[in-house]
Each structure stands twice: as structure tokens, then as C-alpha cells.
# Entry
Amino acid sequence: MRRVLIVGAPALDLDRAWDVHPQVSVRPEPFGALLYHFGTRKLSFLKDRGLLAVVRALADSPTARAACASAGVGDADTGRYARALAVLARSSMLVERSPTP
# Structure
């Protein structure tokens, strides 16, 4: 497997709290979901219903890792989901939030 490193791109810390940006609308679709950011006018496609489950779980989870676990993501797949969440964070679809007590 070839690894690609994106230089200068911030990594998503799974042990921090994340949520969908307040200006982002999530619309479930048969293939996954559409995310539309009203502020930036960016559109993102989630082509994985598992990723949609993780994104939805972010609001109620203390960390992104906990959101992955609550969505049924196994340890072997956590890295793949972390990379997908990092892409969403870089495009301002996700924002870091203060952890819930």
C-alpha cells in the first residue's frame, strides 16, 4: 500500500471533540450524504453510509474516536475514517469544539 503525505495539512486528532460546522447542512442520500457549507458554498459527497453515521455521532460524542466507536467503526478501520474526517475538517465541514464535561 502506498501512503500519500499531504504536507502542511493539519491532522485530525481523534481524541478531540469535533462537530459539523454550524453553517453546514447534511442531507442523507442513498449513496451516503451531501454536505453543503452555506458560508463557503462548498459541496462534499460522503460516499459511505458508515462515514455518515460517524459524522452524525460527532455531536453526541466527547471525541471523534468515541463517535467512530458509537457508529460501529472497528479498530482496523479507524485510520481510514480519521483520514476522511481530516479531509472534511480541512474543507471547513467539521470544526473542533470544546469537549463536553
Remarks:
- The longest strand covers residues 24-29.
- The chain has a mean pLDDT of 87.
- Strands lie at 18-20, 24-29, 32-37, 43-46, 94-96.
- Residues 78-90 form the longest helix (13 residues).
